[in-house]
Amino acid sequence: MKRRHFIKSTGLSTLTALMGSSFLLKSCHTEEDMIGEPNWIVEGGFDTPLPTLPYAVGNVELNAKSISGEMIDGKITSILSYRDGLLGPTIKTETGSNVNVRLDNALSEDTNIHWHGLVLPAHMEGHPKDVTASGNAFQYSLPITQRAGTYWYHPHAEGTTARQVFMGLAGMFIVTDAEETALQLPSGEMEIPLIIQDKRFDGPSLDYSPTEDEIMSGYLGETIVVNGAYSPLASIANTWYRLRLLNGSTARVYNLTLTNNIAFHIIGSDGGLLERPEHAMNILLGPGERADVLVDFSSLTTGTEVFLVSDKFSKYNEQGRQSFSILKFKVERSVTSNFTLPSMLSSISRLAEASAIRTRSFDISGGGERHGGIGGHTINHKSYSIARVDEKVQSGTTEIWEFDNSTGDEVHPMHIHGVQFQVLQRIGGRNELDVMEKGWKDTVLVMAGERVRIIMTFPEYRGLFVLHCHNLEHEDDGMMLNYEII
Ligand code: C2O
Ligand code: CU
Ligand code: CU
Q1: Which ligand neighbours the alpha carbon of 417 most closely?
Q2: Which CATH number fits the domain that encloses residue 53?
Q3: pTM for the complete prediction?
Q4: C-alpha of residue 127 to centroid of ligand 2, in Å
Q5: Which residues, 6 or more positions from 90, have their beta carbon under 8 angstroms from its beta carbon?
Q6: 13-28, pLDDT tens digit by residue?
Q7: S-S: 472 plus which of 2, 144, 250, 296, CB 3.0-4.6 Å?
């Protein structure tokens, strides 16, 4: 269903009914504004200290459970948790290690863990068929063979991924290696993982209950949290920082920028370091994507406040109709540092188009017609079936895949498990590559009207993997296929 047509044909009274009680309808917004973005972001006072998620090294235990009494924005709610708060620990390891993670499932439903961006044996990587039942445990053994990068983890059971992530189950997974360590990038308290998410509440309770229309557009919350905290404040020194940005939202795209005319120096994308830092004033970050950036706060005087903001981007997508602040940095200490931005970071060998043995096309334009709540989102006109193998690829070979959203009207962050890819070309829409798309990627934003071509070599790990839209409402609605590496 095309959303605009849906709104036209049902009218505003239905829309108001769909919106429920949790929306803040400010009188200054016209009806049209509310249709474009019904759940207007509500900013807070930016005085809650930014939480540092605990680091986990070595043998990790994640205990998935429901807990209550958690505070978000002064509201006391139930959440799902791997520890004792929103979001799991930040797992940190190095290339060549083996990470053991025990998952205990104390939820009342199936769950599992997918290691987003990591290249792992099929039975360890969290395919929707490999779930751990309520009351059971699973021991993940993760051989880390790839380069340094900002990866992450979250549940991936069929049909419940969005809700489990939204309710609190997700964490960052950082890999370091010798090449990266040699760069002596800002570290310790100058390295800040930031998981950005949007939440919605029904009264005091965190509420995941998308309507059919919200399954089409994505479930957009009015409360932005970073590392689980609403309207946070990061106390910083006047020096260089490394921010590892992860969009852990189910559907919201952020167009990140800093106030005070401060630039991002992008050093890494989904799959690790870029070849050289890329200067950017804005970063468009879709669900599932990461940006590794350096920021120079050294010219700021004590007391200066800088906001991390999401800017409008409505020329690409109607969810980008509002600009809002996400996090406040406040310079509260002065230090001396002699860090200088490296001119070279890494080298990336380009996969040649001519080395591809075939091209596969994936039609992702199908917003689909919904019939009784099922079958809304498709890839190649197919809705996900856990037992069907949709594509077979040969280990060690290189292919070009094409995600075609040229006649669609929704944004789809397309993600492939089990592999890192390079982006070749974007045709239509923005018509060009983003600077982060010069590096390795596992998720790529395909806006309405765009066709994006990527290239990748399939690893040695044989077995079943998935590709899907990382708008998690779309994924749970069937926008996912199985592919097998043979
Ligand atoms: Cu983070 Cu299958 O995804
Ligand atoms: Cu993934
Ligand atoms: Cu999608």
Answers
A1: 2
A2: 2.60.40.420
A3: 0.92
A4: 9
A5: 53, 54, 55, 56, 171, 172, 173, 174, 193
A6: 333 333 333 333 333 3
A7: 250
